[in-house]
Structures are given as C-alpha cells and as structure tokens.
C-alpha cells in the first residue's frame, strides 16, 4: 500500500486521541456519586467516534466532520463494522451533541455513564482487532 506509513501515522494519532478520551472517562467514573456523568458520556462518545475515524482512515474512506455515530458507522465496511445497536449509536451521538448544552436533556445517571464506557470499550476492542499493531502501540515518552 503506497504511503502506508503516512496512513498508519494518521491512524495512530486518532487512536491516541481515542485512548485519551477513554482514559479520561474511566478515571472520572471513579468519582462515583461526585462523577460528572455527562462528561464521562461525552468522552466515551469521543472514544467511539475517534476509533471509527481511525478505521475509516485505514480503509481510505473519506468522512465528514461530524459527531454523528450513525453516519460514521454507515461508512465502515460491514465486515469491519463494530457491533453497535441503533439505540447505542443514537445515544452516543446525543452524548456528543445534546448533553453539551444545559436545559435540553435528561440528567445522565451513573449507570448511563458506566454503560457508555462499556460500549466504548467494546467498540475499542472490535476496531483494535482490525488495526495493524503498529498503530495501536502507545509511543514512549
């Protein structure tokens, strides 16, 4: 694949950003009752979005600048598509858009936040199984 190192470098960048979002969500969950659940869900959505974009870059598929999980997952070839129900896709998209503004969404429960992180981890596992190992290794500091 011509220019594959350039492609792999971009994939690595998306993966690193996705991992940072998942780390943020996971650590914030440890606050339990003091947890800002909407923030956890936002970062879980961002993790899923960025992993999808990493996969699309690897496959050479152009994608729009959107936070819409349904729109992004539709671009992924069926054979590489992570399992996400329509409800999960819609919920994740809402976490990136609706919950960013006060007064227009229902409160996000701690259970919702835990579920969002669980979904993000599932998508992460699925996509990482398709990505070349060289794109998923964290660079040494």
Helix-strand makeup class: mainly alpha
In percent, how much strand structure appears in the residues?
Answer: under 5%
Instruction: Enumerate the spans where pLDDT stays under 50 for 5 or more consecutive residues.
Output: none
Taking Cα atoms only, what radius of gyration do you get, to the nearest Å?
15 Å
**Main pleated-sheet profile:** none
String of helices and strands: HHHHH
Query: Helix proportion of residues, in percent?
Result: 55-70%
Rough shape? globular
Q: Could you report the average pLDDT, rounded to the nearest whole number? A: 93
Kindly report how far apart the N and C termini lie.
29 Å
Task: Please report the number of helical segments.
Answer: 5
What is the β-strand count?
0
Descriptive notes:
The chain is globular. 61% of the residues lie in helices and 0% in strands. With 141 residues, the chain is mainly alpha-helical.
Brief rundown of the structure:
With 141 residues, the chain is mostly helical. The protein contains 5 helices and no strands.
Write the layout of secondary structure elements.
Blueprint: H1 4-29, H2 37-59, H3 69-75, H4 86-96, H5 110-128
Helix pairs in contact: 1-2, 1-5, 2-3, 2-4, 2-5
List the main descriptive attributes of the protein structure presented here.
5 helices, mainly alpha, 0% strand, 141 residues, globular, 61% helix
């Amino acid at each position: 694949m011509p220019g594959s190192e350039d492609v792999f470098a971009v994939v690595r960048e998306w993966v690193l950003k996705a991992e940072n979002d998942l780390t943020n969500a996971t650590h914030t969950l440890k606050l339990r009752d003091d947890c800002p659940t909407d923030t956890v869900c936002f970062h879980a959505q961002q993790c899923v979005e960025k992993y999808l974009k990493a996969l699309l870059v690897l496959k050479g598929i152009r994608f729009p600048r959107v936070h819409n999980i349904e729109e992004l997952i539709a671009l992924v070839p069926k054979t590489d598509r992570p399992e996400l129900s329509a409800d999960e896709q819609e919920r994740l998209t809402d976490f990136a858009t609706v919950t960013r503004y006060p007064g227009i969404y229902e409160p996000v429960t701690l259970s919702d936040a835990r579920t969002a992180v669980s979904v993000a981890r599932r998508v992460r596992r699925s996509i990482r199984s398709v990505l070349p190992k060289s794109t998923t290794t964290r660079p040494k500091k």
